[in-house]
Amino acid sequence: MPILHTVNKSPFERNSLDSAISHALKGSSVMLYEDGVYGAMKGTASADKISGAMKDVSFYVLGPDLKARGIDESKLIDGIKVVDYSDFVQLTVDNDKVSAWT
Amino acid sequence: MKYVIQVNEGPYNHEASTSALNFVRAALDAGHEVFRVFFYHDGVNNGTRYTTPPQDDLNIVNTWSELASKHELDLVVCVAAAQRRGIVDEGEQSRNGKDGNNIAPGFRISGLGQLIEGCVQADRLMVFGD
């Protein structure tokens, strides 16, 4: 039963990304949007947590929210997929449940 | 898919209301149904027609109202959260003896049961905001 975990806060402000990663079971997905997109950047204190979880969990980041913050896709952790709102909607269809971490 | 959207932030807390708007638009564009949008906590501040941002700002309240009218969305404001924050419709005005009301077009004030019923009816609950 895959779950889409959404994270809308920066990992440098809250621990919601940690919560999402520790609750995400194999086959689940994590969607980073709003300030959550800061967690998708490589070279940060939280980047290893995402890289480490990536063998079991898929990570997505919302493109428009990256753009709003001036984050270039070249700055992202390898393996994170950049998506738009229609992909975001499709992810909520493809997963059985959605869990919002704030 | 049938969605219920819960919005927990006002138009000027962070960006939850905008994210919810974008998600609702994308869901409708993809042919999904938005059964209800429930405004809870500070999210009730999305439902006052007295909001008057500068002209070059996005007017989030009007955007919700327009979207609701175009797609017959059910925009529900939590009554207990609304009373605390001074969001008033005609019924609340007479019930609480207020001198006016400020509910925006397309919004209605009701109880938490509307969220629960929505969750029962819908396939997915999307929560935006804190």
UniProtKB/TrEMBL annotation, chain A:
Protein name: tRNA 2-thiouridine synthesizing protein B
PANTHER family attached to this UniProt entry: PROTEIN TUSB
Taxon lineage: Bacteria, Pseudomonadati, Pseudomonadota, Gammaproteobacteria, Thiohalomonadales
Cellular component per GO, a single term: sulfurtransferase complex
SUPFAM superfamilies found in the cross-reference section: DsrEFH-like (SSF75169)
Gene Ontology process terms (BP): tRNA wobble position uridine thiolation
UniProt feature coiled coil, ranges: none
Alphabetized InterPro entries for the sequence: DsrEFH-like, Sulphur_relay_TusB/DsrH
TrEMBL record, chain B:
Any one of the GO CC terms: sulfurtransferase complex
A Pfam family matched in the record: DsrE
Subcellular location: Cytoplasm
GO molecular function, one term: sulfur carrier activity
Principal subcellular localization: cytoplasm
GO BP: tRNA wobble position uridine thiolation
Entry annotated with the keyword Cytoplasm: yes
Record's keyword terms, sorted: Cytoplasm, Transferase
InterPro entries: DsrEFH-like, Sulphur_relay_DsrE/F-like, Sulphur_relay_TusD/DsrE
Gene3D superfamilies in the cross-refs: DsrEFH-like (3.40.1260.10)
Family in the record: Belongs to the DsrE/TusD family.
PANTHER family recorded: PROTEIN YCHN, SULFURTRANSFERASE TUSD
Name of the protein this chain belongs to: tRNA 2-thiouridine synthesizing protein D
